[in-house]
TrEMBL record:
Signal peptide: none annotated. Residues 245-267, 300-322 are annotated as: Disordered. Keywords: Glycosyltransferase, Transferase. GO terms for biological process: protein N-linked glycosylation. This is Galactosyl transferase GMA12/MNN10 family protein. Belongs to the glycosyltransferase 34 family. Residues 307-322 have a biased composition (Basic and acidic residues). GO terms for molecular function: glycosyltransferase activity. The keyword Transferase applies. The keyword 4Fe-4S does not apply.
Length: 322
């Protein structure tokens, strides 16, 4: 039904979407995929679809992303797309009028490479946005390799759990930002608490799991609170980052001050030690000079001693020579 990697279509854009769909639920997936195709057509997003497994279970997800990412990184910088957007095959675009660029971090936040959401189980990687760069390449490679290098670790949600563990590493955790689920990975309302933030709201872009009636949900971006909410989110995040950086700078300055004081104390101790060594060394040198002088005097005394003896012999009574 699908090519190994099907591309629909291929214009110039900021983002590219990617997914995997195969198996017994393919008919249901087709309904969901059609919503993504319409969204891609509307905003000119190319979409890649892998229609067969490469690894067991769900591990083909990261491999599909790796393949697309390598294709992008092999291009000239000016030709590369900026972001890849992963979506599970059972997710549905409810509001095709919302562009993916809505959720991208502001230009000054070029330290953010991964946007993700959480639910009651923790990380939900059904939908996430990944920047096209080497950082992402290493992240995906680490996820795929995780079970080989950490076979003792339990992965209850397979690659999902591996991704969660890798994202907690120092190398990656500072480049990932958790976003509100209602931005791009909400759930259908279960009729419960209306304030539960996992539930989908009118006008939002995407819902996790199938939803048939979507026409009434399509609202222009300008009539939603997306832009205001996202602006406030990044402003708050930037403020928090500034506070963290200020605190870190303060700690670094205090540490530098302590190191300087410690260095000054070490210099003083060294000077004292050098002074003591110098005094001891000076006394030793004086003693050596004193001994040398004594030896010289003794040597002179020995030099004159034979002459004195000779004179003593010369002064003997001539009568003793007879």
């Amino acid at each position: 039904m699908f090519a190994a990697y099907k591309q629909l279509p291929l214009p110039v854009s900021h983002a590219r979407t990617c997914t995997v769909a195969y198996g017994k639920h393919l008919e249901g997936y087709q309904i969901a995929l059609n919503t993504h195709a319409k969204h891609g057509d509307y905003h000119s997003y190319p979409t890649y679809l892998l229609d067969h497994p490469i690894l067991d279970g769900l591990w083909s997800k990261e491999l599909a992303l790796l393949d697309v990412l390598l294709q992008e990184l092999s291009k000239a910088k000016s030709e590369q797309l900026e972001w890849l957007v992963w979506f599970d095959a059972d997710t549905v675009i409810m509001n095709k009028l919302i562009p993916l660029e809505t959720f991208l971090p502001p230009n000054e936040r070029n330290d953010v490479h991964l946007l993700y959401t959480k639910d009651w189980n923790g990380l939900n990687n059904g939908v996430f946005l990944l920047r096209v760069l080497n950082w992402s390449l290493e992240l995906l490679s680490s996820i795929v390799a995780y079970r080989s290098f950490k076979p003792e670790d339990k992965l209850p949600f397979t690659e999902h759990s591996a991704m969660d563990k890798v994202m907690q590493l120092d190398k990656y955790k500072h480049g990932a930002v958790e976003c509100p689920p209602q931005w791009f990975n909400a759930y259908p309302s279960d009729g419960g608490d209306k304030d539960v933030h996992y539930d989908y709201r009118l006008g939002q872009m995407l819902v996790d799991k199938l939803e048939k009636n979507r026409t009434r949900w399509e609202i222009p971006l300008s009539r939603t609170n997306y832009e205001k909410q996202i602006e406030e989110f990044w402003r708050s995040l930037n403020k928090e980052r500034s506070q963290v950086q200020a605190e870190r700078t303060k700690v670094d300055k205090e540490k530098a001050k302590e190191n300087k004081a410690e260095g000054e104390r070490a210099d003083i101790d060294k000077k004292k030690a050098d002074a003591i060594v110098g005094k001891v060394g000076g006394n030793a040198e004086a003693n050596e000079r004193h001994v040398h002088v004594d030896k010289h005097k003794l040597f002179s005394f020995l030099q004159h001693a034979p002459a004195k003896n000779e004179r003593a012999k010369g002064d003997q009574d001539p009568r003793r020579e007879v």
